[in-house]
Amino acid sequence: MAVPPPNTSWHLERLLEAAIEVGSDVTFVVDGESFHAHSLVLSARAPALLKEREAEEEVKKKAGGTSKEEVVVLRVEGITAVAFKALLHFVYTDELPPLDDLVRAATAGDSSVPSSETSRTRMARDLLAAAERYQLVERMRPLCENLLCEVITPEDAAATLELARRHGRQELKAFCLDYMSSPGVLTAVVATDGYKELSAEALRDMLNHIASAAASSS
């Protein structure tokens, strides 16, 4: 007998899309845009979100019966609306939206946007920062690291290496070092602003990796 595939994430995505009408009790305001969510889902999937501006205490107070109709409104700084929307999508579905869709949403109507490669890298970095901030480290963080590996270019490789070093992401760091020391890439990397801004530790790691790669190939 055929068994249909799991569809819980599909139903939760529909719940998120209809949150303003179906049981939403938390509203996040990011860059002037409102995002409606459900404290029960957040408590189970991303409890760090409920700590924004003492939200956890407010939700507990409401759950205790002080005001069943009240919605907790939280203003969130330090993250773009597009990245926050993608974060909520992950919380409800365990998946990130396609990166190109996020870039299009972030750059819509902006005639001064950078190249598509740079925009994709920035978006992937924003998502990684969100995963770190809200402690979504088991799945979202490695998904974001994989995105950074997929979109890496000589122009942003040094900055991504520095990001990996700063956050202690060893696999991402190793990927960057391998990429930067590959034939034809190093010369382009050295000419970038990101290379000039590398910390002494990251530069030392890069030079040691290049020397090790050269020694092993000789």
UniProtKB/TrEMBL annotation:
Pathway: Protein modification; protein ubiquitination. GO terms for biological process: protein ubiquitination. Gene3D superfamilies: 1.25.40.420, Potassium Channel Kv1.1, Chain A (3.30.710.10). It comes from the Eukaryota. Transmembrane segments: none annotated. Pfam families: BACK_BPM_SPOP (PF24570), BTB (PF00651). Residues 24-100 form the BTB domain. PROSITE patterns: BTB. SUPFAM superfamilies: POZ domain. PANTHER family: BTB DOMAIN-CONTAINING PROTEIN, BTB/POZ AND MATH DOMAIN-CONTAINING PROTEIN 1. Belongs to the Tdpoz family. This is BTB domain-containing protein.
